[in-house]
Design brief:
The chain is α+β, with helices and mostly antiparallel strands and 325 residues long. The chain has 9 helices and 16 strands. α6 (266-284) crosses α9.
Length: 325
Amino acid sequence: MRLADRQDGFAIEKTTCRGRAFLGEDVIRYTGFMGRTRSKTVAARYGKRYNVGAYEQPFSGVGMEFEPLGASTIDTGFVLHETGYWPTAHAWNFPKVFSPFWRVYYDYARAHGVQFGNERTLLGPDRVLIIPNHQRFDCFGDVPVPKLWFGFSCKQNVEPAQRMPIIVPVNDIILAYVTEFPSLFRGRSPSRRENIRRLSLSFLMYILNQPQIRWQESLPEVISAAVAAINARPADPWANPVLAKQAAMSTDGFIRAFRQWLHTTPAQYVRQVRIREACRILCEGDDSIERIAAGLGFADRFHFSRVFKRLTGVTPVLYRKRHKP
């Protein structure tokens, strides 16, 4: 095993060893990191809550939850799903993570890391790690460390050739931001939640403007037109052949192009838009679950509820109860 230096100056670790990671003289041991002895149902207890990891939906179980997956990104270019801070985050072993949303991680001490392929990158107080949507990676680390994280969706995508993870060196501005979060999470002010939300949005706006992120060019006209049509009429029966015909492309060619630019399939994108619209209706109106399901193109309320819970982590009824004014 050996340490290698990435071109951006940060130390990484390349290894195929299972079960341990060597950080200088410190040894971190974890179970089944690249094997099958753990699953995403394994949860670490944080106080009275459990960190279940955030795979298909962006809520870990131990963070502060905001907007669900599929919420609109029109105003800021991104939407915040979750902000979390834990002073003794441990058992951070989540294999084969692959999610339709972005993540930002900052650790106040060095012990945990992420692995892309055979390349490991450590978290620590000198860097912020950014992981865009639809990237496959593993998390590792058992030693308790203070951890700050964000889950969000972004309107833009990074270039396919962008190296993962994206590492942003900590400067005085970033340090000022991350110093504020622990006291906010410890506080009991009535405005605590809103203060965390505002600080999170400000921090992410700053992070997403860093030069280390290589943004993808604007969508081709045919893909942009398909996206606009789906957003305008989410309940329409958007089968792949229908979308491909409107784009004057073959079905296979359209699906490949859509995945290349949006990092998801047309069918998955349609589901996300429908659930986003369902969230709005649940919060703003009193329509029954059956009516919402029928109005958004779902077969029935049971199909709608299954898809809704898979993307948001809660049922439509519970979502309305939590978020309707």
